[in-house]
């Protein structure tokens, strides 16, 4: 088998593995296929996910289903105003037997960390996630502890209830690779969901279709996807368009461009291709960029959103051919 045929075979296996995980999530979560797919792509892109939607639509269930689908360790934190950073990262405790301090790991030491209602905790506690999301490590009292890959932070927040919340600062939002919404299911799906959840909840019987090792292999495969220089320039031009838009107080950062390219690589792998196309970038741009943009007050008063401005930037940025 020649080198190109081998690459195509590997890409096909990667696409099949991603499809199996997406199909497994669909057994539990009644959400659009693209939302489930983006969730898996975020994992393959070594990113972090923010799920913003109304209460009761399955945000927590999506996180749990993903962890069970890939047979990884799962931890959950309910963010509240009185939560401390050490409640997230862990703390050194004095052991009277050994007469030494020993480290007690916090819930962040898991492959999948679900942070429920992330904007309920104080900025000090929110900042406990910054290092682990960026560097895959936690530092306590000057000692750094590595987090085992894959490591994915999934945070939820309610977009309509702001009383008693602390909005995420830009630096925190910029570390979330993707933002997705689940939405209300169609009437027929919701009726089916009522029966499932009150008789035999599908999450209880969900079986893994991948392992941590296979996920690490997918991450490595996605990293090897080829990106032509013209696609790199397309991403940079798209970012530049958001920075020059007077309706935006803050445009997309270089970190957002890296995130966009990583998710585009994961999408190319899911499509069974060994290279990134401009269509991959266009398909991922809104969920990757929209939450990072700060809309100027007058544009926000006119009803414009970050997602709409990203779509407009896509329309006005020349696509490489």
What does this structure look like?
- With 321 residues, this protein is α/β, with parallel strands linked by helices.
- The chain folds into two domains: 21-222, P-loop containing nucleotide triphosphate hydrolases (Rossmann fold), CATH 3.40.50.300; 225-321, Helicase, Ruva Protein, domain 3, CATH 1.10.8.80.
- Helix content is 47%, strand content 15%.
- The chain is built from 14 helices and eleven strands.
- The protein has helices spanning 3-26, 33-44, 59-69, 86-89, 123-126, 130-135, 170-173, 187-199, 212-223, 229-243, 254-270, 278-289, 297-301, 306-316; strands spanning 49-52, 74-78, 90-95, 100-105, 112-116, 137-140, 143-146, 152-157, 178-180, 248-250, 294-295.
- The strands form four sheets. It has a five-stranded parallel beta sheet with strand order 2-5-8-1-9.
- A hairpin with a 4-residue loop joins strand 3 (90-95) and strand 4 (100-105).
- Helix 10 (229-243) crosses helix 11 (254-270), helix 11 packs across helix 12 (278-289) and helix 12 (278-289) runs antiparallel to helix 14 (306-316).
- It is globular.
- The two termini are 31 Å apart.
- The model has no long low-confidence stretch (mean pLDDT 91).
Key features of this structure:
alpha/beta; globular; 2 domains; 321 residues; Rossmann fold; 14 helices; two-stranded antiparallel ribbon; single chain; Helicase, Ruva Protein, domain 3; 15% strand
Q: What portion of residues belong to β-strands?
A: 5-15%
Roughly how much helix do the residues carry, as a percent range?
40-55%
- Give the averaged pLDDT, no decimals: 91
CATH top level assignment of the largest domain: Alpha Beta
Structural class: alpha/beta
Q: For the record, what is the CATH homologous superfamily label of the largest domain?
A: P-loop containing nucleotide triphosphate hydrolases
How many beta-strand runs?
A: 11
Our count of domains comes out at 2
Rg, Å, rounded: 20 Å
How is the biggest beta sheet arranged? 5 strands, parallel
Shape, please? globular
CATH architecture of the largest domain: 3-Layer(aba) Sandwich
Major sheet: order of its strands? Answer: 2-5-8-1-9
CATH fold assignment of the largest domain: Rossmann fold
Determine the N-to-C terminus distance: 31 Å
What is the chains' assembly state?
A: single chain
The helix/strand series, from N terminus to C terminus, equals HHEHEHEEEHHEEEHEHHHEHHEHH
- Provide the low-confidence segments as ranges: none
Given the structure, what is the number of helices?
14
């Amino acid at each position: 088998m020649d080198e190109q045929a081998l690459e195509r075979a590997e890409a096909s296996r990667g696409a099949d593995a991603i499809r199996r995980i997406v199909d497994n999530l669909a057994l539990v979560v009644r959400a659009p296929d693209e939302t489930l797919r983006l969730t898996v792509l975020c994992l393959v892109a070594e990113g972090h996910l923010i799920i913003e939607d109304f209460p009761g639509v399955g945000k927590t269930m999506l996180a749990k289903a993903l962890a069970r689908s890939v047979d990884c360790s799962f931890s959950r934190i309910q963010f509240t105003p009185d939560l401390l950073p050490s409640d997230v990262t862990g703390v050194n405790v004095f052991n009277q037997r050994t007469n030494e301090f020993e480290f007690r790991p916090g819930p962040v030491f898991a492959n999948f960390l679900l942070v429920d209602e992330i904007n309920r905790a104080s900025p000090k506690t929110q900042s406990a996630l910054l290092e682990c999301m960026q560097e895959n490590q936690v530092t306590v009292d000057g000692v750094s502890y590595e987090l085992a890959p894959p490591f994915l932070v999934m945070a939820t927040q309610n977009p309509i209830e702001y009383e008693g919340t602390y909005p995420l600062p830009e630096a925190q939002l910029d570390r979330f690779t993707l933002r997705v919404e689940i939405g209300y299911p169609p009437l027929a799906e919701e009726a089916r969901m009522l029966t499932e959840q009150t008789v035999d909840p599908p999450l209880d019987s969900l079986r893994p279709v991948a392992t941590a090792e296979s996920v690490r292999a997918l991450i490595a495969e996605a990293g090897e996807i080829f990106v032509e220089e013209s696609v790199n320039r397309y991403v940079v031009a798209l970012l530049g368009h958001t920075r020059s838009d007077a309706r935006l107080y803050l445009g997309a950062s270089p970190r957002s461009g890296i995130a966009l390219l990583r998710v585009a690589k994961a999408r190319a792998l899911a499509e069974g291709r060994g290279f990134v196309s401009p269509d991959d970038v266009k398909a991922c741009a809104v969920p990757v960029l929209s939450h990072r943009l700060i809309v100027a007050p007058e544009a926000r008063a006119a009803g414009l959103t970050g997602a709409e401005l990203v779509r407009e930037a896509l329309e006005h940025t020349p696509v490489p051919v």
